[in-house]
Structure of Peptide chain release factor 3:
Amino acid sequence: MSAPADTSGHRVTAEIRNEAGRRRTFAVISHPDAGKSTLTEALALHAAAITSAGAVHGKGDRRGVTSDWMDMEQARGISITSAALRIDYDDRVLNLLDTPGHADFSEDTYRVLAAVDCAVMLLDSAKGLEPQTLKLFDVARNRNIPVITFVNKWDRPGREPLELLDEIEQRIGLRPTPLNWPVGIAGDFRGLIDRTRDNTYTRLHRTPGGATRALEQTLDHAAAAELEGPAWHQATEELDLLDEIGADFDEASFLAGRSSPVLFGAALPNFGVSHLLRTLIDLAPAPSARTDTTGAPRPVEAPFAGFVFKMQANMDKQHRDRMAFVRVCSGRFDRGMVLTHAATGRPFATKYTQAVFGSERHTVDTAYPGDVIALVNAQSLRVGDTLYDGPKVEFPPIPSFAPEHFAVARALDSGRYKQFRRGIAQLDSEGVVQVLVSDVRGEQAPVLAAVGPLQFDVVRHRMEHEFRAPVELAHLDYGLARRTDPDSAPVLHGLSGAEVLTRRSDNALLVLVHNKWRLKVIQRDHPTLLMEPLLAGGIEEQN
Ligand code: G4P
């Protein structure tokens, strides 16, 4: 069947609109250790989606193993792949798409941001904006994703709140509009004043280990002044200052990515987390029309369409499988629908569709715009591919990012060359690495290109354990890639410190160069040769 039995009429349209309106699809962008896993747990806890903190991410001695699906990851205590988490709260559905939390960059992280409608920028109160936060923020900005800021770890010594706001404004040009304000300096956290509710003061009591909802007590201002003393007076003075400079929430500039509502809190003891939940519900945009390749907006109530933003193989050792994570953009998804794969025009059966909740998978029968569905056995799909029902629609591809690390791959056992080829092709189609080839190097020695070096560890591990074709990876001394054309390629290929290869996925001609100084020299000596920057997180690379 290609459509559910009751698609006709206004009822379904109204249902889809209503369901889309209930959804908030977002990701947390942060630097490792800012507290993303802790915040994820706290959000789920507050929403009563799980009974005690610790069931979402398998980290340290916390229970449960979810995205940490490879032995290698566990050994390193990081999660390379991501899962989607659904949180039901107050008649709303929050879909939290996990961005990998390690210090390394991979395309995966960026792609997740192609599939969300909002981002929570999580800062450590003692550290402020850190490198990976900045990089991810750039991607969010470039995609026009509205950003809510959560300043975490307020229970620990940190920086002044005004200083943190200033850093946000000065370094990334985002106007901070605090929704709440802390009473007590970082490390001596007393409570929060809610600027959105007549400066209501909520005093917070720590709960051991943060394993249950923090106890919150609302106090009137006179009682607060008496109890908190100088801390209260300082906070109210700062609030007056904020009022004077007009740092109030402004919907238009938030949605346009020019201002960011800021919340202070502490994820570990569950301080201020419920305010973040409410903010996501009240302020984050619901799914809206997505532009297709013709430039036409596809309304949420149009027939089903979605795109693959992530591929993941071998999540479950018991069942060797390959999953495509699809962000639903329009229509209602009903399990069993036969969709069309836009890239090939072939039908795609959806009998085995799942939703992933933490470590568990559930069969999903129905999904709406904003939801993420996982299609099992999706061998034919690639990242960026569109699936649709009814008349053809295709969404623009997710840009592939500028690789900065390159290595030649060779099969260690030449008797397993067939498996080697299959494995490399598979990793290319999943977007784990980009595969570059040239006549000079030959098919036996493709060049693998990655955004971060950790991607090579993934290749090594999967080639050995999944494809049974161990590889040797020889690092190449190139640091950047540029797009070129058939006229420029032969000249560039003859220059020292440069090499031209073809990207297998789209036949683009890329020239690899040692470093930006070498690039400058080549550009100066050969100004007519094409050396076009690739997209870095959707942003023109800067040199
Ligand atoms: P990540 O996913 O962003 O990498 O960070 P994660 O949640 O693992 O948090 C990093 C460390 O910061 C953890 O401590 C965590 O307990 C702590 N943390 C997170 N939020 C808060 C907070 O609001 N207040 C305080 N005081 N600490 C916070 P760890 O000792 O490295 O790990 P663990 O043994 O607790 O897992």
